[in-house]
Amino acid sequence: MIKPRQDLRPNTAEYETVPLVKPTGFREYDARWILDKEINLLGIQALGLGLATYVHEIGQRNKIVVGHDYRSYSLAVKQALTLGLLEGGMDVLDIGLALSPMAYFAQFDLAAPCVAMVTASHNENGWTGVKMGAQPPLTFGPDEIGRLKEIVLNAEGIVRGGGTLTRIEGFRERYIEEVSQVKLSRPIKVVAACGNGTAGAFAPEALRRMGAEVIEMDVELDYTFPKYNPNPEDHAMLVQMAQKVRETGADLALGFDGDGDRCGVVDDTGEEIFADKIGLMLGRDLSALHPNSTFVVDVKSTGLYKTDEVLKANGAETVYWKTGHSYIKRKTAELGALAGFEKSGHFFFNAPLGHGYDDGIVAAGAVLAMLDRNPGKKLSELKAALPDAWTSLTMSPHCDDELKYEVLERIVAEYQALADAGGSILGRKIVEAITVNGVRVHLEDGSWVLVRASSNKPELVVVVESMRSEDDMRALFREEVKPRLAKYAEVGAYNQEI
């Protein structure tokens, strides 16, 4: 195996003969690069050989599911990855065009312990990546990714004979059958928004089989993403979903990201409900059916989980944990929690509701089942029954991958010092600074601000929540977090702001 480099340029002989792999593409819980600029196809092949080497190193069976999302280059990336896996002696099961959760399901259904899903998720065109796992339903975290990085960058990959490739035909039907097990007792009118991403080939059909009346929105596969990026956490997609609900009189809109492992929700009035609030609604509903359940939520999520009287009455316990699908998935499995909820729209359901991994269509089914169990109540009414809390969009200022963690350390230290000194924010005393994942600063009235590093892009992540009002929520960002981060020259423009 030729040792990868990170200084190669396209349109050179070296670029065609040497793997290009930028180290920053190995992130906390998956791998993502800008194709051609940060990794070439030979680099992807080296990743495949490295992954095969790691699977053998940990003593796992050499059987792996591969799939790819709908991008102009994803099939080529998967084929390069497959070539590396075959070099490393893996038995590869290719399920074709797929959602990430479809690949995770295939691990269970095809008795394959390993998975490598080629996807850039909701990242813009030009990005590619791989979500990997070797112990269902878990995906790699920092330890596994760190070791894989060492293997690939140091050219430790070991070529072995015996690799095989099997194409699994018709697996789309098997997956849709699995995720459409919810059966509604009444028709619910649903906008299925797919942003022209991969979910368009799966979600509308699955929702129909559940018994929903489906209004399709941007379901045609188009890897140019002509209207907006398929990311149900982005304002642009939410606005389009809201408009469609108002036009059609739908009961709700369900939006899916580029690889279908996340779900966003807009209610019957055209108002978005962030996933942490949907999780709280689901927690209320499910804890009545499954008393004394445990739920896991990420540190970007609302503080209402800790104070909600319905959860308390049902004996539910909530554990806050690190943001990131790999972290929440792992913690949900470790605690045997009924479900895990992440503000970005990842939902994890353990038995009897699911297999433990994140699946946007399964999450959509859970929302529809909740509505079905509450006849006569609209989604907006279920939301209105929650205590008041005003939570911001997730906002992400640019910060280079090579710099973001060092910058975050300084920001965390600054907030920690303020808390230790008995400081306050906008007239409210700081009662706690949680540093398990960046820094989440809690104020005496229950409001909080969060700054952390993005795990998959060159960005920081900012979320604020007020227990007072929407205006106060905006003030927490505009008068506290934004000016504090503006002091750091390394912090750039935001992707969106409240």
Describe this structure in words.
The protein is of the alpha/beta class and 498 residues long. It folds into 3 domains: 156 residues, Alpha-D-Glucose-1,6-Bisphosphate, Chain A, domain 3 (3-Layer(aba) Sandwich); 208 residues, Alpha-D-Glucose-1,6-Bisphosphate, Chain A, domain 3, CATH 3.40.120; 97 residues, 2-Layer Sandwich (TATA-Binding Protein). The chain is 34% helix and 20% strand. It contains 14 helices and 21 strands. A 6-stranded mixed sheet has the order 1-5-4-2-3-6, with helices on both faces. Helix 1 crosses helix 2 and helix 1 packs across helix 4. The termini are far apart. The mean pLDDT is 95.
Overall geometry: globular
How do the strands of the widest beta sheet line up side by side?
1-5-4-2-3-6
Number of helices: 14
For the largest beta-sheet, the strand count, sense and barrel status come to:
6 strands, mixed
Structural class by helix and strand composition? alpha/beta
Distance between the first and last residues' Cα: 49 Å
The name of the CATH topology of the largest domain is: Alpha-D-Glucose-1,6-Bisphosphate, Chain A, domain 3
Number of domains: 3
Low-confidence runs: none
**What does the average pLDDT come to?**
95
At CATH's second level, what is the architecture of the largest domain?
Answer: 3-Layer(aba) Sandwich
